Prior knowledge:
Helix content of chain A: under 10%
Structural class of chain B: mainly beta
Largest sheet of chain B: 7 strands, mixed
Helix content of chain B: under 10%
Radius of gyration of chain A: 13 Å
Oligomer: heterodimer
Amino acid sequence: GQQVMQIPQYQHVQEGEDFTTYCNSSTTLSNIQWYKQRPGGHPVFLIQLVKSGEVKKQKRLTFQFGEAKKNSSLHITATQTTDVGTYFCAGPGGFKTIFGAGTRLFVKA
Amino acid sequence: DADVTQTPRNRITKTGKRIMLECSQTKGHDRMYWYRQDPGLGLRLIYYSFDVKDINKGEISDGYSVSRQAQAKFSLSLESAIPNQTALYFCATSDYRGGDTQYFGPGTRLTVL
Lengths: 109, 113
């Protein structure tokens, strides 16, 4: 079946360092979504990308959708302690949404 | 998201007990979902419903059942709880007109002893 894979599983960074998580789908996606889950919280929608090669920015976060619409990345510039949490990508799979396993980000002050 | 509520927020129960987790939403969405989260395994879909008369199994439905009582209510039952059902359970809603963006409830932490 369709799979959405995410790497790395964990990332430890020093505050101020950059962070990137990558998402790869086994099939072409019509769109990709990114969510953030703070420790002890629930996943919260961040953004959706639809177009091939699309790049969107939210302050220090940059989201990219690959040209083939099978991969995506989330890059955080100059991480802050408020960035800690797990970042999930998700894509449509038939009539439902398939989530990646997530990348957990730890930020050391 | 305050528009999606789950009860209870925490539950400890014993093996063999029947448990019901409830979800309500005020977003007016037709689509509702139940997910299970385990450390390192992300979010796995248990059941989903696209309207009151539509119920579909997800990837890990064994041992679970659901009921869609109304557009706004979707409950998950564990008929006979077992320890490996200890997990964090999330309800979510979506609107296909909004690209199926998922709006999650606060979660229910279930422990089966």
